[in-house]
Amino acid sequence: MKLHRAFRFLAFALLLLIIPAALSSPSSAQVFVSVRFGPPALPIYAQPICPGPGYFWTPGYWAWSDEAGYFWVPGTWVIAPIGMLWTPGYWGWGGGFYAWHPGYWGPHVGFYGGINYGFGYGGFGFFGGEWRGGAFFYNTAVVRVDTVHVTNIYVNRSVVVNNESHVAFNGGEGGVAAHATPAEEAAAREPHQAALSTQTQHEHAASQNRALFASENHGAPAVAATARPGEFSGHGVVAAKAGAEYHAPAMSPKEARAPAAGPNRPLTPASNSGKNKMDSAQTNPMYQDKAASEPKSTPRSESHSESAPKSKPAKQGKAPKHQNPPREEKREKGR
User: Fold this and answer.
1) Are 199 and 84 in contact (CB under 8 A)?
2) What digits encode the pLDDT tens for the residues 218-236?
3) How far apart are alpha carbons 71 and 107 in whole angstroms?
């Protein structure tokens, strides 16, 4: 009897050790994909109306396939874990490559490269809503909500600042020159969890849709955002226009693929170190491009209408030129 109780106690103790590890996503610190040229500019699109209470906006992004290259994962509304906020993933230049840093759920929004994903994600934090107890309240100055069916709303226009940046990566030539703040670094150390199964299924479905390949849509996907994950047709789907002129890469996806960082070797956005300049010079592919023209100011209903951290292109070693040129940005007001 005593042996049985001791066994149960040990099993319970082991479970307590496993749960925090399961909730903590390694994706915030690890990089699983690295590429020799950067993603296209973020497309410009309107946000679908929130389907109902409890849904949380996850912005669209360029993902990578070794067969097709960059493909667009439409922005979508998902049922959020109670009390959790989504930190989007981002592409960051470092060590001669563009590396993908996956997003995660946590109690606070961490660093997402200073990328202006729009609709509350202006490059720093999230201003599209907030948790109050077990209910999520939506800031209708930033996100689109059917106020007849969703009554947990408020209006805070002070966080809305026009921003025309469509740059899709951090660091490197033409990239967003943002660095994690102490608060964002603290958020990355908090317990958090990886993307929901609905999100991973949504990305997988996008990878199978040829119309979402950058090589096919040239930076303007016909399905830019959806009301619900995996719904790529119907009335909740919105199209996009390109955020900048698209230029095809000069190498195949297989040639562009770089070795992924292992669990103990995470890649980080580039710094201004001499080593990084040397790496950049040694690994630059031939990637022809011209500076794209500056787009006109976008309406508030379109993506990238909120502000991003004010920055200039990083001063560092030459990185491959790519589809999106450097743009002047404005910082969004903090919380």
Assistant:
1) no
2) 999 999 999 999 999 988 8
3) 29
